[in-house]
Write a structure and sequence with these properties.
Layout lengths: L1 H7 L9 E9 L4 E5 L11 H11 L6 E10 L21 H13 L5 E5 L4 E5 L13
Parallel strand pairs: 3-4
Antiparallel strand pairs: 1-2, 1-3, 4-5
Length: 139
């Protein structure tokens, strides 16, 4: 979770005011951090996808074992990399991020563990189907 909080520090969320951090863990122990990156046309990049892309560029796309996600309002008075600045309850990845994770999971050899954290609750889910039961598939 600390890597997800750390990733959130680089969030560029000037339009929504809501910063998200994510971290993926590869099978070999490498951690890739991502944050949401907004642009005025609303076609920015989610934190989860940013972390996935970094893992993919490093050749670890099909080796992702875990992803942690945290988010909350951006507040200049609080360190966005701390738990105090997270939402009360966990947030979940969007549908597109879930679809991306499901494809990665289906190409790998085990289900991805998803860790979602808020100030008052941490959820640990096994398998992307728990968030996206009807994912698209070419099969």
């Amino acid at each position: 979770m600390q890597a997800a909080y750390s990733g959130r520090k680089t969030s560029y969320s000037v339009y929504s005011g809501f910063g998200v951090g994510a971290a993926v863990l590869a099978a070999d122990g490498h951690v890739f951090k991502g944050s949401n990156q907004e642009v005025v046309n609303y076609k920015g990049t989610c934190a989860e996808r940013a972390a996935i892309i970094l893992a993919s560029v490093a050749g670890k796309r099909d080796k992702i074992r875990k992803i942690a996600v945290v988010g909350g309002p951006v507040n200049d008075d609080l360190d966005v990399g701390s738990e105090q600045c997270a939402t009360e309850h966990p947030i979940t990845p969007c549908g597109q991020c879930c679809q991306d994770l499901r494809e990665i999971e289906s190409n790998g050899d085990e289900e991805i563990t998803i860790i979602l954290a808020g100030r008052n609750k941490v959820m640990r889910l096994i398998g992307v189907r728990s968030l996206l039961p009807f994912a698209f598939s070419i099969n």
